[in-house]
Specification:
The complex is a heterodimer of chains A (163) and B (105).
Chain A lengths: L7 H10 L4 E4 H8 L7 E6 L3 H13 L3 E4 L2 E5 L5 H6 L2 E6 L2 E6 L8 H5 L3 E5 L2 E5 L2 H11 L2 H16 L1
Parallel strand pairs in A: 2-6
Antiparallel strand pairs in A: 1-2, 3-4, 3-5, 5-6, 7-8
Helix pairs in contact in A: 2-6, 6-7
Chain B lengths: L2 H12 L3 H7 L4 H9 L6 H10 L14 H9 L4 H24 L1
Helix pairs in contact in B: 1-3, 1-4, 2-3
Classes of the chains: A alpha+beta (163), B mainly alpha (105).
Chain lengths: 163, 105
């Protein structure tokens, strides 16, 4: 079975409705900054205080989030609590509206407090979202240093240079 | 990419504050802030020196110029954020439909 169609604004809308404190990073944040590269997931960096983890857990329930793996792209059901969410630093999930990756400390960063400092609060398709600065997206991709990161970095650097 | 942006990236990666980097370079926090913000443009030598003070090496790499992706990105800069998101969604829908058509043969 295929993954659900990607609806980033729906994922972000539910996170916002539950008051989840998070910063959007990764490929979709780069698209908002002007990147021409397509992405199939939303990457967020949530704050990891207990109250925010409770809100996050509630939002994930509403999104029917499951654990994504390449062999089970429709997801594996999992039970979660604020505590269990905070104990794992990276979650690859699939929701009713496509892929959602949670990372508490993306490569090259110290997590939410580090990223929110230079993030910009934007309205994207009617949804309020903290978008990581282009410089921080570049920093994270530089540190991750995967093939797909190296591919997009020249254009992201040029966007940063000309912004 | 501006030299100040490279310095900021190296400093953040090293987990240093502007004050700490300034101490390592025997300069002031405000000088670091000006370089990072683009108020002053540091020389290549100064950038390399600052990066090294962060415990990172600046390795220049020359690559063939390919403006194909930049052409799309530069267009994206002229349209609204919502329009960027909509065009991205439309491109994904097209790619998905194409994959499904391919699978159907």
């Amino acid at each position: 079975m295929d993954e659900p169609a990607f609806g980033p604004e729906e994922i972000l809308r539910v996170l916002e409705a539950h008051g989840v404190g998070c910063v959007l990073i990764g490929g979709f944040a780069a698209v908002i900054h002007g990147s021409p590269y397509l992405t199939n997931d939303v990457d967020i960096v949530p704050a990891d205080d207990p109250e925010n983890l409770r809100r996050l857990s509630d939002a994930l329930r509403e999104l029917h989030a499951k654990v994504w793996t390449a062999s089970e792209p429709q997801g594996i059901a999992f039970d979660h609590s604020p505590k269990s969410l905070g104990e794992v630093r990276v979650w690859n999930l699939v929701t009713d509206h496509g892929r959602l990756d949670l990372t508490f400390a993306p490569s090259g960063t110290d997590g939410y407090a580090d990223l929110v400092r230079d993030a910009t609060h934007l309205l994207v398709l009617g949804v309020g979202v903290n978008v990581a600065s282009l410089a921080d997206i570049i920093r994270s991709k530089e540190a991750a240093d995967r093939d797909k990161d190296r591919l997009v970095l020249p254009v992201l650097r040029r966007l940063a240079e000309e912004s | 990419m501006r030299g100040g942006q490279i310095i900021r990236e190296a400093r953040k990666r090293a987990g240093l504050t502007q004050v700490e980097l300034a101490e390592r370079l025997d300069t002031t926090q405000s000088a670091i802030a000006r370089m990072e913000a683009g108020g002053t443009e540091p020389s290549f030598t100064r950038v390399a020196e600052a990066v090294r003070a962060c415990g990172v090496e600046l390795v220049p790499h020359l690559a063939r110029l390919d403006d194909a992706d930049w052409s799309v990105a530069s267009t994206n800069r002229t349209i609204s954020i919502d329009e960027r998101a909509r065009r991205h969604a439309a491109a994904l829908r097209f790619a998905r439909a194409a994959r499904e058509a391919m699978a159907r043969g």
